[in-house]
Amino acid sequence: MDTQKEEFLKEFGQDYGYPNAPKNIDDIRASEFKRLGDVVYLDHAGATLYSELQMEAIIKDLTTNVYGNPHSQSESSLATSEVVRAARQLVLDYCNASPKDYKCVFTSGATAALKLVGEAFPWRRESSFMYTMENHNSVLGIKEYALNQGAMAFAIDIEELENYSGLPRRDASSIKVSRYSVQRRNEAPVQEAPEGNIYNLFAFPSECNFSGRKFSLDLVKIIKEDSERVLEGPPHNKGCWMVLIDAAKGCTTQPPDLASFPADFVVISFYKIFGYPTGLGALIVHTEAAKLLKKTYFSGGTVAASIPDIDFIKRREGFEESFEDGTQSFLSIASIHHGFRIIHSLTASAIARYVNH
Ligand SMILES: *Cc1c(COP(=O)(O)O)cnc(C)c1O
């Protein structure tokens, strides 16, 4: 074992671990992942391992600060609101998303964030839901909302043409799209003389959790600006295309840069990035796209007032609050500060480099 390691280090020494981190990877493993012993774990894949240092910091935080229910009015409640506000900012920063252009809504995971988009998207009969063949089931499930509203759903395959791969930015002429069969539920209600814009949704993963394929984020602009060229012929290239990136897997090593690739919706999951907490994710939504979303269900947390015996509700005004049903998972949200601290000390780019080798 040891001679094997020596040989490995001779060949890859420069590229082993996180060269710019305060500690080398063997020391990190010995001090922050003691529980591993000699277990071999494929990290930054299905779930990232949380560091023991991270957990100590979380315990210290939760045992020294008083976090009350964010919907109450007290000092402890304000402490929670502040920690949640700062956590939203951390999430936006991680994806290089300006708070002027994007909002961060906490959800119970990437799946719940996808379901929220499906539920609240302005589907109508003329809309299309298009998705790459390589996609998580939680993305495919959005199809049910689209089909139930009479919209169309179809899968595509995207081939990135080789002769363009050297270009810094790809455009519509650098991809070839093949379309698979179109699905439509005929029994879906026909709406009368619909008014207003038609909105379509395109969904793809920044990295496929099954095949590991990474899709070029240039797709965001290609689909939004040049959909007619990409999707020539029927069905549908009418209306406005909104783009959803499923970054649940991609985020573990390469968060999307939303300043360069301004997607409308991005979903992420925190256990994939730093292991703890589970059951917490986020929907990062562009402020313009946010205005189109219509939520059906209301609940504690999303409603300012409701009257049981008449058809009246007043929803909360803040965008994030109007989409977060119930009481936010505020102790989990407080915990992500410590996860991000670990990621920032290693740096996401060093993790990506390490995982690539
Ligand atoms: C893990 C994963 C999901 C689901 O995330 P949850 O937070 O577990 O719901 C969705 N899409 C991709 C690409 C994933 O890797």
TrEMBL record:
<feature type="domain" description="Aminotransferase class V">
    <location>
        <begin position="40"/>
        <end position="160"/>
    </location>
</feature>
<dbReference type="Pfam" id="PF00266">
    <property type="entry name" value="Aminotran_5"/>
</dbReference>
<dbReference type="InterPro" id="IPR000192">
    <property type="entry name" value="Aminotrans_V_dom"/>
</dbReference>
<feature type="domain" description="Aminotransferase class V">
    <location>
        <begin position="236"/>
        <end position="354"/>
    </location>
</feature>
<dbReference type="InterPro" id="IPR015421">
    <property type="entry name" value="PyrdxlP-dep_Trfase_major"/>
</dbReference>
<protein>
    <recommendedName>
        <fullName>Aminotransferase class V domain-containing protein</fullName>
    </recommendedName>
</protein>
<dbReference type="InterPro" id="IPR015424">
    <property type="entry name" value="PyrdxlP-dep_Trfase"/>
</dbReference>
